[in-house]
Structures are given as structure tokens and as C-alpha cells.
Amino acid sequence: MPACHLPLVGIPTCLRTVKERVFHGVNERYPSAVIDAAGCLPVLIPAIGSKIDVCQMLDRLDGLLLTGSPSNVHPSHYGAEPSHPEILHDPERDATTLPLIREAVRRDLPVLAICRGIQELNVAAERSTNGCTRFPAASIIVRRGIPLMARMDRRTAWR
After folding, report:
1. What is the tens place of the pLDDT at every residue in 69-102?
2. Pick the CATH number of 3-129 from 2.60.40.10, 3.40.50.880, 3.40.720.10, 3.40.50.720
3. Which one of 29, 41, 46, 85 counts the least CB within 10 Å of its CB?
């Protein structure tokens, strides 16, 4: 399928400092999985918080992939005490993903969360419903030889 017709899957990035320079990035396996397993085109979303117009961003996407990361959601987002100083946090990713998730769920946009992404999904659910989780839980059964993700289609994708 030509790239201009591929569904677009947004992948929020993390901020990383390498040799005193700050980069937006994700582990290579995530964009590769979106391309190879789902037949979609990954779109990296920079961790720039409120500088992103969430509605305009989601207007262009067919789904969201919330990735794993060495960092965790900051405890201030779910009313907990600050964590141990050695635990990594990425406040710009938090500021980017939490509003994205809330709006994506409101729109019924497909979302796949992995590791840190599950933390983000849970925090967004709690915050948006005052403790009552409104996001449905799902079980995924993986069998050898069957792709985990199907090609993105707004009617059936990731549901």
C-alpha cells in the first residue's frame, strides 16, 4: 500500500540527554512494530507538553501507541509522594501524553499502551473520572504466527 494511504499511528517520544544534548526519541522497536506488524506509518509526537494542540494532532491520527520507557509517570499526577531520587521521570512526556490520552479516549480513538504507557493510561483514567476508571480493560491473547496488531481501521482497530 502506498505510504500516502497508510493509517497514521502517533507515538509520543521521551526526552533523553546524550552528551549534554537533549533529544526526542523512542526505542526503535516501536516504530518498527507499527510498520512491520500493523502495516501503519508511525508519527513521532515530540514531548513538548502544552505546545501541542491535542485536538489538531489527533485529527490527523488513526491511533496512538503509548510506549514503554525507562522513566515513570511523576507521582504528582496521581496524588502520591515524590518517588525515590533514582527513579527517572519525564515531565514533558507526562505533559504531552496525559492530555493526548484523555482526548483520544473521548474520541474513541484506538490506543495501545505498553509498560509506561499503561501507567499513563491509568493516571489519565483516574484523573478524568475522580477515581472511577472509565477506560475498559482488555485481555490480549497472543498465539504464535498470528499478528498481535491488525491493520488500522477506525471501525475495528485495536478493539
Report:
1. 999 999 999 888 877 888 889 999 999 999 999 9
2. 3.40.50.880
3. 85
